[in-house]
Task: structure prediction
Amino acid sequence: MKYKDFKGLKLSRLGMGNMRLPETDGKIDYDKAEAIIDLAMSGGINYYDTAYVYHHGTSESFLGKVLKKYPRDSYYLATKFNVLASKDIEKVFNEQLERLATDHIDFYLLHSVTETTAKEYMNEDYINFLKKEKAKGRIRHIGFSSHAKLPTLKKMLEYSDIFEFVQIQLNYLDWTLQDAKGQYEMIKEYGLPVWVMEPVRGGRLAKLDDRYEKILKDHLPEASISSWAFRYLFGLDDVGVILSGMSNLEQLRDNLKTFDEVKTLDEKENELLMEVKKTILEELTVPCTACHYCTDGCPMQIDIPKWMDLYNRVSLNKNRELYLKSKQEPNGPDTCINCGQCKSQCPQNIDIPAVLKKYNEMKL
Result:
């Protein structure tokens, strides 16, 4: 495992994201998830990222339980305050300490800054609380995660000098698709390092269509498809921790192998990846990352990321058989009542009701 310095700390370049842990019957499968954490620890990962709302509030408790057997100074904990889940930051923070079975949080973030939440987060009460807890040593470093456009990101960066790092969605597709390039360069201008979320875009860049994979596999037969996405990020000097929400041991082993070397793409490899990227962007229809923020509170209990993925697969491949089969499933696009709750929660600003309507009315 390679490490990068952050204010005297040696942080593993690969961070363990705990938003997509394995589940059984809709709950974290503790045995499988614990095996992932154990392998991550033995593989040298020392940065563990979670949030108050992940796995419906159980991700933090899971981490607190499984990491308890390791010395507290052998890992760093990162978690987040989400103003949409609760406005009482003090209550939430104390609950998080209890869930995580710790007396301090190493990296504390304001969660998911968007055009809507930025106004909430730019509150002196929140900033003063963070300053107070940092002075006490219960918070060691402060940052925020952002899905905001450049003007809003700039306002957050200018609002307070307490921020020490910024976490953004960054991968070779979103470099242009979501203007991650502009975000990265702006954060760099403010002298802050970038933490990366969604490096393989919710798994989309870990497995590509056969014709895309062939281009990459013909050049590097032994390399995994996901390793190309990570190696692209290695070429960005101001990237620190790269988070990956690994949900099985196979994904973790492959990522550990990639991060054991941290080898950037050479000129030919970058050219091939950009060729793949260009074609994908021309065909990509809905930029969903399967974060599931949209599903909480859906009155019809629609598994929206599943239908976004189906929309892309059906529309890109004109797969009539898959489409007809999907139409037989319960809680489908036809049950959407167009309430707009999902749209207001989407970090990608997808007009989800409109996409569901288009899917429901497809003619193949």
